[in-house]
Amino acid sequence: MRLTCEPLSIPDGTGDLSVHDDQGRVACTLWTHVARWQCKDAELAIQVIAPEAIVLPTPEASEPAPGALARLTQALLGSGGLLLLRNPAVAFGPQRIAFAQGVRLFAIADAADEACWDAMLSLGQPVYGVRGTIACACRTTHPGAVISALAYGTFTCEEALAVSVLDESRQGVKWTLPVEADTAVIVRDGFEAGRLRGVSGEWQDRGSEGYVRLVMRSAHGAAWTQPRFIAPVVSKGGGCA
Predict the structure, then answer these.
(1) Which pLDDT band, with edges at 50, 70 and 90, does 231 fall under?
(2) Which class is domain 161-240?
(3) Which of 34, 69, 98, 191 is deepest in the core (most CB within 10 A)?
(4) Global pTM value
């Protein structure tokens, strides 16, 4: 079943993150905590998402930002909680984003955040982007199923454009949209390896991409898929189909 939520709509503080089904009904709720940690070298805008409440450490103004993130990720071990960094570009930037190792989710509010996401992915780190409405396919409405989707990147981000079909395999990815759109294929270092226009398309892996993610833009909306890490292969062809 298709479940949706909007983590970035939650203001500072502790509360519930509602997860909705296709009929707009609340299917389940997640616990979430949003805060700004003023560190020695940067301000961290963080959000923790979990199946249930977690006791979190408190910020220390004398602590560098990487150390603060390390304490947070350590506190979440075994809890099922996920750490979302809401300001990757402001806190670190692409050149220092490796210091955010261990963070599972990045907000991608703008091109600068997206550059940080691509920089982290190019280091081989499994980080997933969050923007707009999160849409995931879950077998149950249990909070743990939604957390699992967020943890393993089995979701898309939507802003007035839903992805009708996303078929990923070891060979590539196929997609279908409800309206015509431009789909950019993004690979290692944020390089645009291909672009297609239409309601559907296909990308066949070459084996040299490092990772593949899609950005779809229509006249009235946009959608982002999560990265697929690509194992190097010997191939005679590949690319857009």
Answers:
(1) confident
(2) mainly beta
(3) 69
(4) 0.93
